[in-house]
Design brief:
266 residues, alpha/beta, five-stranded antiparallel β-sheet, 7 helices
Length: 266
Amino acid sequence: MVSVAVPGSSLSDEPNMEGRARKASVIARACAIFAVDQVLVYADGDRRDGERLAALLRYAEAPQYLRRALYPRTAALRYAGVMSPLGISSHSVTPDPRRITAGDAREAVVVSARGRRFIDAGLGRLLPYHGRAPPGRRITVMFRGGPPGLPYKEVGRSEAPGYWGYVVRERAGLRRTLAEWEGRVIIASRRGRPAGRALRAPPDGGTLLVFGSPERDVHEILGGRAGGVRDATTVDFFPGQSTRTVRLEEALLGALSVINSMGGTS
């Protein structure tokens, strides 16, 4: 799976909070459609902008039955209700405990009650928890059997079936983000070569797809020194574009679609 890096200022071209939530929803949907692994939100301007974007993306990725426990209502999430559901595997689970069978996986949150720890897995009842995660931590569980006991084990996200969602990570500036990335880097920019010539092989799971901000291209953010980025290729995913600019959400959908057609996002 491919990961993406987007600036904290990604929502800055929207005039109000509702518009920002809607744009974050399109970004989240694009990442889910093409099975993005990680979304790195790199610092670019006001730190609060990045925090707001990260909060909205995390909210969208969380299963609906966990949102209230994981994300108390804040100013950043005031308009989160306008965001479209992702419909990914971790969201498409039954709320009926009678329908749970061995091998079913789902997300849960650790909670504390009566001096003990339990998990809330959206089944209308709490299940005892004996793991190490503290209250408030989100975990992935796989059931060993159905009711009445609903025995389960804690597993890694990679053990769950299907696409289980992206992970949002907040990062320092773009240069540091790229320096810490250990795989291949693809910079989306109209300064690059057309994708058909620049990408001869499908990107692998260690690839980071990097986007600029509404105000600045990646090369401008890097001070014109994109050539110094290790193992990086600059790609124009919209050669001959007829508009002055391509919005971030449009760039995400277009670039990920191209990479997907090469077999690089699954």
